[in-house]
Write a structure and sequence with these properties.
The structure is a homodimer. By secondary structure, chain A is of the alpha/beta class. Chain A is built from 14 helices and 16 strands.
Chain lengths: 506, 506
C-alpha cells in the first residue's frame, strides 16, 4: 500500500509539474533532451476500424469482435504491442470540436467550436459559437511548443477555420510547417490522378504528386518523413501532427489493398477497409523511417481518431448490437450521442521501446497494455497537458484545461483513471441533434433538448451495459437527478452556450 | 418514481433556464413581478456562531451543541423556521475570495483573488493572482442585475479592492448605492463614539452617527432600511447586500447585549457573543421593516457567512473536538483547511412565507427544513446562478459559473444535492498555508504544497467522520489516487495558479 501511495504522490507531482513549472527543470547540470512528439490523427476512425481489439472481456482481456477480424492493421498491432491503449477514450462525435479540443486542451463547450466547421458558410448554432474556428488570441498547443523550442509540423487535414479565414491555414494556429491543411474536411479524391481534388475542394501543396498514382495517404506520409529529416538537420525536437484525411468519405478504394476485401451486404466496405489498411501502411512507414533515422527511442507517438466511426457497415447479423453497424458491438456511429459515435482508438507508445533510454526511464509507458473500462477512461482534452509535460513546459497562466496529463496512468498496468468525467455539448443539428452527453464514473446521461419530456433523458451504466441497450432514466430517478445536476454544473463551469430556439424542455 | 422523475426534469429546466433564457419568460401577457433579493452576509460567521443548530444527528434532525446553547440568535431562529438551511454550505476559509465568488459565481481558483486583499499593499501570491480585486471587465452579479432592472444596493463591508484602487468602491463593481463599503476588511471600532475608526481605518459614509452611541451594526441596518424605502419610491425591485462588518475582530462588547454573556475561560467570548446578538437584532429589525412596508411576500433573503468562525473560543472540555474551539464540534476555524474554517451558515427564506403569493408559488422554498449532510451540499458559487434565475435573466455568454441554481433543491425536503464537488485553492501563507482542498461526494482531500511527502495529503470521509479526526490518506491509497486526480483536473479546469517557490512536492 505504501508503494501505491507513493505512486499517487508521484503522479500528482507529475501532473502539477505542468502547471507549476518549477520542478519540471532537470536536476542535472545539462539541459535535458526533449522527446519528439507525434500525433497520428485519423479522421473518422472509430474504435472498431482496426484489427487491434480495444474492447475487453470480463477478465479485462482484449476480445476480438467481427469487425476486428475484417480489418487488417498490422502496424497498429505492432504499435499496440509496444504501447499502452485505452478501451475507453472519448472524443466528440464530430471532427472540428475534437480537433480544436486537441489543440486547446479544452472541452468544446469551453472553446465553443461545438459543431463541425462548414468551409463555405456559417454553420448554424448559438449566437456566440465559434463557427469561424480558432481565433488569433486562443492558446494552442503548437504555439506553446514553438515557444519552448519545438519545430511544429502539420501534415494533412486542418479544418480549423472556414475558407478564406485566418485559421484555415494551420500556420495561423502555431505550426511552422503546413502541408495539406486548409479549410476542407474531406479530400474529394484520394487519387493523385485526380490531383486530390474535385471542383474547389482540393488538398493543397501536393502538386508534385498530381497526375501520379500516389495515394493521398501515401503522399502525406512521404511529406511527413521529409519534414522529420529537416528537423534532424535543424537540430530541433519536433512536434508532428500527421492528420490523415483518411478514413473520411469519399470511400474510394485504395488500389493497393482493395482486392483483399469483400462484402456483399455492404458494398462500400471493401473500399473503406482499403483506406484503413492504407492508413495502417502509413503508420508502418513512419515508424520504419523513424527507426532508420535513429529516432525511435526519443520519439513518442499518440495514435488516435477524432470521432466515432463512419464505416459504411450496416451489420450482417441478426442481433441488435451487430445491426447497429459501424462500431459494433458499440451502439451508434459518427455524429451520434452513443459511445459508437464518441469513442476512438488511442495508443500511446515510444516508437522503439528501449530500457536504457533516459527519456523512457523518465516517462515509462507500459507495453502491450490495455487500460480496461473498469479502470476508467481518458479523453482528447488530456493530450494537451500530457504533451506539455513531455515538453517540460508550463501551461499558459489562466488557460483552463479540461484534461490532465496521462503519463502517470500510462506508466503502469491498470492504474486508477486520472479522470472520471467527460462532457460533450452539442447545441446543433446533425445526425443526432441538440444534445448534451455527460459521463461521470460508470454513468452516462444524455439530454435531448428537442424531445418531449418522457424521451428527453437517457441514462446508462456503461460498466453493466456497454452497448447502451438499457435506458435507466425512468427506473433510477435519483441517479438521474444527480447526474442531471452534475451535468448542469459541468455546463455552467464551461460557460456552455445554448440555441435560443432549442432550449431546455418546457 | 414518476413524480421524482418529473422533479428532476423541472429542476434541470429551472437550472437551464438561467443560461438559455428563452423559457424564463412569463407565460402570462403581463410582465411578471420580480422578487426583491437580499444577501445578509455576515463577516467571519461560522456554522456554530448561532443558537440555530445546523449540524444534524443520525436521523437527519438538527442537534444542539454547546455553542448553540451559548449564543442567542432569535431572529435567525425565526428565519430558519420560515426557510430552508443547509448543514453543509462551503465558502473559502478567508473573506475576499468568498466575497468575490459571491459576486462572480466562480471559484477563487478561477477568479484568481485567492487570498484576502491587503488594503495597503500587494499581498503575497502567485504572479498573476488578483491581489487588486475585481477588475473593470469582470462580470459581477450587481452589474447583471442592474442591467435587468434592479436597484443594486451595497451596505457595509466591501473589501473588493485595496486602498485607492477602483474596486475599493462597491459602485465600481455594479452597485448603484454604496454606504459603508471601502478597502478595509474590519472596522477598527464598532462604536459611533469612536466614529467607527482608528487611524486611517475608518468606515465611510456614516458621519451622521459619529459621536453617538449607535453601534456600527445598527447604523448599517438603519441605512439599509432607508434604501429599501427609496427603492419602493423608485418603483424598482431591489438587490440589497447588507454585508455586516460584524463579527470580525476587534471583539468589542456590544453594550446592548454584553451583560448577558459570561465566560471565564475565554474572556473575549462575551464580547463576541454580543456582536453575534447585535447582528441577529439587525436581521430581526430588517425583517420587521420589510413586513411593515408590505414587502415580506415578495422579498427573498439569503443569510450566510463568508468563511469559518473566528470566535475567540478555545474550548473548555477535554475531548479533542471540543478543544479545537470556534466551530466545535467541527475541526478548524477561519483560515484553516478543515470544515470549521470553510463551512458557514446558510438559510434561504421568503421573508414572509405566504401560500397565495405568485412569486412563492413560482419558486417555493421548503419551510423549517434542513438539508442534512447525507443529501449533499451547496456553496457560495451557487448564489450567482440562483439569483439570476430569480431575476429572470441570463448568465452572460461565455462566463463560466462554478455553481448551479439552488432553487430546485430548496423547493423540497431532502432533495438530492445539486452538486457533488467543491474546490478551494490557496497558494498563499496564512493560518493554514499553501493548500488545495477538494470535496467530491463524501470525500475530502487536502493537499499541502509545503509539507514533506508523508504529510502532504489528508483524506477524510465526511459522512463517516464529520470532525475530520481520521486521516485515511495512508489506509485508502486507491481512493487517494482517485481524489488526487480529480482534484488536479478541477484545478486544471479552473486555470489555477501556483507559487513558483511553493510548488508541488519534490
Amino acid at each position: 500500500m505504501t508503494l501505491i501511495f507513493r505512486q499517487a504522490i508521484t503522479k500528482l507531482n507529475a501532473l502539477a509539474c505542468l502547471t507549476t513549472g518549477a520542478l519540471c527543470l532537470s536536476t542535472g547540470a545539462q539541459p535535458e533532451e526533449k522527446p519528439n512528439i507525434i500525433f497520428f490523427l485519423i479522421d473518422d476512425m472509430g474504435l472498431m476500424d482496426t484489427s487491434v481489439p480495444f474492447i475487453t472481456d470480463e477478465a479485462g482481456q482484449p476480445k476480438i469482435y467481427p469487425l476486428n477480424q475484417y480489418y487488417h492493421t498490422p502496424a497498429m498491432e505492432m504499435l499496440a504491442s509496444r504501447g499502452h491503449r485505452f478501451e475507453t477514450f472519448y472524443a466528440n462525435s464530430v471532427c472540428s470540436p475534437s480537433r480544436i479540443s486537441i489543440m486547446t486542451g479544452q472541452s468544446s463547450a469551453r472553446h465553443r467550436s461545438t459543431q463541425w466547421i462548414n468551409q463555405d458558410e456559417r454553420n448554424a448554432g448559438p449566437d456566440g459559437w465559434r463557427w469561424d474556428g480558432i481565433a488569433a488570441d486562443q492558446v494552442t498547443l503548437p504555439k506553446v511548443l514553438r515557444q519552448n523550442g519545438y519545430r511544429t509540423i502539420h501534415i494533412g487535414k486542418g479544418h480549423y477555420g472556414p475558407l478564406n479565414s485566418p485559421a484555415a491555414d494551420p500556420k495561423f494556429i502555431g505550426f511552422d510547417i503546413n502541408i495539406g491543411g486548409c479549410s476542407i474536411g474531406s479530400p474529394a479524391s484520394y487519387s493523385g490522378k485526380d490531383n486530390y481534388r474535385s471542383g474547389i475542394y482540393h488538398v493543397p501543396h501536393l502538386e508534385a504528386y498530381h497526375g501520379t498514382d500516389t495515394h493521398l495517404t501515401d503522399a502525406l506520409t512521404i511529406e511527413a518523413c521529409k519534414q522529420i529529416d529537416k528537423s534532424i538537420a535543424d537540430g530541433k525536437p519536433f512536434f508532428l501532427q500527421l492528420a490523415h484525411y483518411a478514413l473520411h468519405a469519399p470511400f474510394q478504394p485504395d488500389p493497393r489493398f482493395a482486392d483483399k476485401y469483400s462484402d456483399e451486404a455492404d458494398p462500400l466496405m471493401p473500399a473503406y477497409a482499403s483506406l484503413v489498411e492504407g492508413m495502417d501502411k502509413s503508420l508502418g512507414d513512419l515508424i520504419s523511417h523513424l527507426e532508420d533515422k535513429g529516432l525511435g527511442e526519443n520519439t513518442i507517438l499518440f495514435f488516435l481518431g477524432d470521432n466515432g466511426s463512419d464505416a459504411p457497415y450496416h451489420g450482417r447479423k441478426s442481433n441488435v448490437s451487430q445491426k447497429i453497424g459501424s462500431s459494433a458491438p458499440l451502439r451508434g456511429k459518427k455524429g451520434t450521442h452513443y459511445d459508437g459515435g464518441m469513442r476512438v482508438p488511442f495508443i500511446a507508445s515510444w516508437v522503439t521501446p528501449t530500457a536504457s533510454s533516459a527519456l523512457q526511464k523518465k516517462w515509462p509507458l507500459a507495453q502491450n497494455q490495455i487500460t480496461s473500462k473498469e479502470h476508467g477512461f481518458a479523453s482528447i482534452e488530456d493530450l494537451f497537458p500530457t504533451t506539455l509535460e513531455l515538453a517540460g513546459c508550463d501551461a499558459p497562466a489562466g488557460h483552463p484545461l479540461d484534461g490532465s496529463s496521462m503519463l502517470g496512468v500510462l506508466a503502469t498496468a491498470n492504474s486508477a483513471s486520472m479522470r472520471n468525467e467527460f462532457l460533450m455539448h452539442f447545441p446543433h443539428a446533425h445526425r443526432s441533434s441538440y444534445f448534451t452527453v455527460f459521463r461521470q464514473g460508470p454513468w452516462k446521461i444524455i439530454y435531448h433538448y428537442n424531445k418531449p419530456a418522457d424521451q428527453a433523458y437517457e441514462l446508462f451504466n456503461l460498466l453493466d451495459d456497454p452497448t447502451e441497450a438499457h435506458n435507466l432514466a425512468r427506473s433510477q430517478p435519483e441517479r438521474l437527478k444527480h447526474m442531471a445536476a452534475s451535468m448542469q454544473l459541468a455546463l455552467n463551469q464551461a460557460g456552455a452556450q445554448y440555441m435560443k430556439d432549442k432550449p431546455i424542455l418546457p
